User: Fold these one by one.
Assistant:
Number 1:
Amino acid sequence: MRATFGLLAMSLLVACGQPVRGEKVDGAYYIIAADDPEDRHLSYDVGGGGIGLIEETVTGVGHDSRYITVERRPRTPPGPLEYYYIDRTQDRPADPPRVIEGPFDATAFAAEQSRLGLPELKPVH
């Protein structure tokens, strides 16, 4: 019964254009999946709506008071993992980040993590 209700509720949300999944990362940063749970992308809430920052599929995210880090596997065409980071000291309320660094490959991102002390990535499901 719960599964049926859950499927019905999720179907109604999708039909209404609401995200299938939304998860707060920190501050105004969210992981959103619009129509399919695999379409996870990083979004920034500008008050009354979100701005997409990094396209699907986000597979990992990290954060601290200074940075947001993101791991992404492109879906179309399928590609190798890409890595990004955002310097949060540039954040302004109701204004999306202006600079997103990346994409980096794993080696270049590891060097940036070491150089800047970027936060570790945690899996996003």
Number 2:
Amino acid sequence: MKNKRFVALHITIRLIGVLCFSFGVFTAWFWQTQPESTPSRFLVHLQPEPEKAQQNRNLSDYEFGGRTSECKELSEKESYECYSRARDFILKHWKDRKRAYIIIDVVNTHCDKERHVFIEPDDNSEWRIVWAEDINTETRDFNPNISVRTARSIKTERANQDTYYYKKGSSYLAFLDRNAKQIEDF
């Protein structure tokens, strides 16, 4: 009989343990404070579309003068003639006050650049030359890399010994702002 009592004693201890555990779980569940239900809001930050050099222009209103990318792969003489045609296009449309644009491709060791040159009137009907430079780098992602400069006049210059980019004696265009300060050349 002693053995039966021992087994019954262990069953009672087990039963008391299970009841205490169940009571603890029930008490924790019952007394747990329920947070007030509030509508969930998620803040989603979408990356914007990358800025484009043409911005909000309707390019069908502009005469397109092409790209100068083909000029880089020509001989020196042919390259000069190719760039001269691009300069003539800009100068002609500037003098005739006709909307036009041309893309000047520049490649260097750090990045590729597309210079979009727009000849157009501004909101006050004053003619201008807008240089919108799109810098394409590997780290660009969605960051805007558009640099915009506005010229109000053009003059033809001759390269001299101080002009580092152009061959001495060759002609190029100097683009000037309202204060007659040169902002760009081509």
Number 3:
Amino acid sequence: MSVNSSIEQLHAALGGYYEQWRMLTLAEGEAIAASHWPQVEYLESAKQSLRRRIEITTRELLAEYAKHGLDTQQAEAEFHPLLQKLIALEDHNAQALEAQQRQARKQEVDLRAASAKLRQLKRAYAPRPEALWQSYS
């Protein structure tokens, strides 16, 4: 296998992994928007597995560059624009998730307030137990 061939293979593999990450992140954004939390959890798990493959392949690529006296910073720079896009997608998902969490907290507060109001109404309008017994005497 030639120098270029091994580097090209690792480069292609890493590019493929980053494309998979992009697709998973887009699907995750859709799942967050739909509040489909099991799907979000599944996609996060898939990305964790993919992260390990990315880390291993990155180490192998950098080692291959170094082994042949090539500039490892060049290898990293080649993926920089793609990584910036992935980071932007991740940030978008994080913001969407935060918005969902804020909405859930607001709903919880609203439900607690409604529950308290219902308890007050029940106490105000429900007949007292002793009043029921007096009606049978």
